[in-house]
Amino acid sequence: MNVLLTLSLALLAAGGAAAQTMTPDSVAATPNPLTLYGFVDGYYGYDFKYEPTNQRPGFLYSHNRQNEFTVNNAVLGLRYDNGQVRGAVGLHAGSYVAANYAAEDPVFRHLYEGYAGFRPFRNAWLDVGIFTSHIGFESALSKDNWTLTRSLMAENSPYYEAGARLTYEVSPKLTLTGLVLNGWQNIRETNQGKALGTQLQWKPIDKLLINSSAFYGNEQPRDSVRRRRYFHNFYASYAATDRLSLALVFDAGQQESEQRGGRADTWHTGAAFVRYQLAPKWTAAARAEYYHADRGVLIVSGAPQLGDPAFKVKAASLNLDYAPAPNVVFRVEGRLMDAKRPLFAQSGSQVSDSYGNLTSSIALAF
Fold first, then answer.
1. Gap between the Cα atoms of 148 and 361, Å rounded
2. Which of 210, 211, 299 is nearest to 253 (CA)?
3. For a pLDDT cut of 90, what percent of the chain falls above it?
4. Which domain holds residue 162?
5. To pair with 130 at 20 to 30 A between CA atoms, which of 27, 140, 209, 280?
């Protein structure tokens, strides 16, 4: 009995000594798998030559209010990642949510993301739920974008998706993703078919990123109607110097005609971005873009009463950013659009072929 007591006391003493030798640095070296994140983007916009309401043209979803102080997107969420299991849940609200999630079931409108995943094998992740879109150079959070407002192609392609995605890191320079989705930016399924998506991201050198994303699916609300949609997004971003960055983005899509053998609806769009750091806290950016759709397809013009669904617009914007702290940025952007025909409603029954606005924002991320 005395031997067992002595041995027990010795083990306790050894454990206490080991605990005392553990330094604070070694404890801090273990990362916390659970992180809290948040983002808020407050803004004010003013429109020139547009109908005197607070609503900007219907094909703009981000920063879509004018002559009104409001919030574009406020996000609060939790993410978990221990290296083998991961997941996230985030809630959001704002004018972007009201415009972009209007067709969703009310129970899902304020869910920014919600997914769970694990590693089925080394260098791979399998996630199921709601997550950000695999399409496009620009995201729903303005802090991640070179310009404050979004390009026409970004506004009229998916910001979010619901489904399953398998991501595989072939090498540090190449990542492949395959997706099975409910559809083209819809959380609640609208028919019995599923859409497919792919993404390839290649970084041949540290300064260059090349992305290729594709989508295929039937986006009609009834299974008796099949109009298959084919879509491809390509972009390349290049850090030319420590201060100068460039990007090119192209989209092309086709959707089958309502009548078998009829002419398909097609659209194509492109944008060029230039960003330059003027000083440690100051950055300027410019964007030139076009959107060409013969029969509208995804985008709705501001003047449907004209009876012509074609949407052919060129646009340019100039952006100035001031970052007083690493997680805060004040941004001002001017934007002009020019159309092939009158598209933009003005006061009364007047319609213009040009449209311009100013947008300012203060965004905080943590």
1. 8
2. 299
3. 72
4. 32-365
5. 209
Convert the pLDDT of each residue in 92-146 to its tens digit.
999 999 999 999 999 999 999 999 999 999 999 999 999 999 999 999 999 999 9
Rounded distance between C-alpha atoms, residue 352 and residue 346, angstroms: 7
Q: Is residue 1 part of a domain?
A: no
In this predicted model, what pLDDT tens digit does every residue of 317-339 receive, in sequence order? 999 999 999 999 999 999 999 99
* CA dist., res. 270 & res. 236, Å (int): 12
Our CA angle for 122, 233, 81, nearest 5°, is: 30
Taking a C-beta distance cutoff of 8 angstroms, is the pair 291, 312 a contact? yes
Read off the pTM. 0.87
Q: H or E stretch including 79?
A: strand 69-81
Q: How far apart are CA 94 and CA 142, in angstroms?
A: 13
Distance, in Å, from the CA atom of 355 to the CA atom of 339, rounded to the nearest integer, reads: 9
What is the β-pairing status of strands 124-132 and 160-171? antiparallel
Percentage of the chain surpassing pLDDT 70?
Answer: 86
* Residue 19 included in any domain: no
Answer yes or no: is 6 within a domain. Answer: no
Per residue in 295-310, pLDDT (tens digit) is: 777 886 555 445 567 8
Domain harbouring 209, CATH code: 2.40.160.10
Q: % helix / strand / coil in the chain, to the nearest 5?
A: 10, 50, 35
129 in any annotated domain = yes
* Element holding 6 (H helix, E strand): helix 2-21
